[in-house]
Specification:
- The structure holds two protein chains of two kinds.
- Chain A has nine helices and no strands.
- By secondary structure, chain A is mostly helical.
- Chain B contains seven helices and 31 strands.
- The chains are: A mainly alpha, B alpha+beta.
- At the A-B interface, helix 2, helix 3, helix 4, helix 5 and helix 6 of A face helix 1, helix 2, helix 3, helix 4 and helix 6 of B.
Amino acid sequence: LVPHEAQVDEGELIERARQGSEEAFSSLLRLHQGRVRSFVACHLHAWDVVDDLAQDVFLAAYRDLESYRAEGSFAHWLLGIARYKVLMHLREEERRRCRESGTLESLVAGLRAGRLESETVGTAIHERKLTALEGCLEKLPDPSAKLLAAYYARGGRSEDLARSQGKSGSALRMTILKIRKALRECISLRLGDAGASA
Amino acid sequence: MRRGETPDLWSRYLAGEPLTSEERLRLEEALRSDRAVQSELLEDAELDGLLQARAKTGSESGLFAQAFLNRLKAEREATGFIKKVETRLGEGDPPKKPGLPDGPRQVEQPATPKRPPTRRANSRTSTPGPHLGPLLIAAGVLFGIVLFFITSSSNSSSPAPANGGSSSAARQKSEREQALSAESKRREAEARLLEIRRKREELARQAAQPGQDPEEQQKRKTEEKRLSGDKERIERELAEAIELAKKLRQPSTEGRPREERPDEPQDPPKEPGLSQETAVMVAIVERVAGEVFIIGKAGKTEAQANRAISAGQGVETGANSLLVLKYPDGTRLECGVETVIREFSHVRGKRLFIQKGAVKSQVAKQPKDQPMVLETPHGEADVLGTTLRLYVDPDPKKGTKLEVEEGKVELKNLAAKTVFVESGHYAVAAVGVELVALPLARLLLPAPWMDQDIGAVGVSGSASYSSGTFTVKGAGADIGMTADSFNYLYQQLTGDGTLIAHVTALGNTSPGAQAGVMIRETLSPSSTFADMLITPRGVSFQGRKQSGTPNFNLGGQSVTVPYWLKIARTGSTFVGSISPDGKSWKDVGTATISMGQTAFIGLAVVSQNTATTTIVVVDLVTR
């Protein structure tokens, strides 16, 4: 999700992008698209909205590059924009769904916005969570890892995968839910360990 | 809820599979009633999102980058065309300025509202682009049909008739599933329409930036083709969804006509844009002056005192208008001219979206965890209890200016930066403007004085007050001909009245720079008026007898500041006078002008140079 950045002079790219180089901004986009998209996806539900919103983030960054101050991390600056855009979207979703009688969706959007507004799922922890997730995925038993990969490769659609596994759709979803639970516990442990050692 | 049911419902919900109404309610209940469950499910949703992103971003990162570059390119290509259209619109419809009770206006109002590309803001605008009007109407029609169907479906899901049997239950289930499908299609179409609108708004925003590519003709064709293609495609999808909704309606009513259900109550009359679910009163109209409307989904209705504003509704004030709203807890909002507020809500605290204009807010103490949130296209202000003013310009470069009179307000911009603005300070949330709190260089205007630019001034003017002296800055081309452009420090005048100004300084931005006392019927540029002006060359009494007609001008003697000016109204008679000492007065001119009982009286300042303001210092006396 997060590319290696050591070989890239990000400061130089930013400077060139400020001077109008689309190529430089493209490089910045490639460097950071993973973390921005994952951050947005982490807090939204619909994937088609995720990419649109992630593009909005980069568009806002492109237009407002002058306001970026070098003393802060560029990634953190981008995630700050992403956080705000996601919050705006969730609050709008909360209101829109409420009007449309989609009270469950409205409730979920409101709760997710509330979590995002709190520090517990802020931008700072996002990078650590991504790293922890990668580590936890490596620790998954092979069948679980393969099943999870197959499930998400299909965009979360379970019917054909369930058939190929000889399971019902419901059983497959519950299995995936359990794998995610195991991953959450692992991530929590790793974040706790990192916090303790920091 | 049955044991173990929540994870199953949640996994189905997360996978986008349909839930029955009862299942949705049970899942809602689980989320609301058990914080541990709530936390666990939300964490699960976040991990689900991360895993989706992990799968997608690995395989589609190149596509994402390319899509972004294509979007950037398409928007740049269209910029020239949009700019041209907006320029023409601007020529035909000179921009008007929002004003604010008890405070100065700081931001300029361009002819075509533009907003930054926040998705949240997307669905608030009620003025779609020229290509989108029919699409949004079609979406509205479809939405109505789908809602009607869902209502029918919901009715049919009440206890089945005794002779219905299991086939009826199966049919109802099928209908519900198809309803979800129709609703899903409708949502997709709506989302796409919003996306098109958002893109157009972004294009409009880009168009406002200098240095655009001049190849407009080709770009116009490209843009028109793209919009046309989008329009046709979405219309086809809407038509399909409408057909589906029609089919779904038939079995619901078949053999059971609506009129044969005597127990079913008549639909109550609805406020515009109000569904039964959202009919929650948020505030009431305390005072109205001029053209003020309440906006709902179904359109506008004229605002009247004591009328309720409900969740989901908005308000709009016209030129020469004022609106005061009051919340049950005593919080008051005063909306100046040309102000648009959308989406009043009260879900977790007061919340509203100011699309443009000027709003003064006296916010009663709010619960700590539920601040009143005033959103604008450029950010939001979170308020726990204070008095503040917000000036909102659709131009993202001018943005939102927050002035705090009492208390402390948190202002957030689109880059998610926040700043606390304390009493006597201001901050601006705008593109390219650093978000910092700065002390107000002057004291706020004493009531009932207000200030705003009239007409296309070029550079925004302002007014400040200190120790009995007003300092007014104004740009603008001129006062005269068929329309005016200047800065106006004013208050309402009912019936007869007199204003005396001791002009002690007048910036010499041009030989025609003017300052003077003025009475005008409205705040529109072409209004009737009478004024007594002083320029570096002398004084003049002038006016406009009919709206939109050329002015008259009665030249006076050559005097220079400091000097005293007076304008007086008695019925339809207006008299302009001057004095070297404020005691001995000489009439410069008299005119008969038909003007309504309610008008405005104040100080007019024009630099005769739209690139800069001139500064005028005056002492004002009203009688």
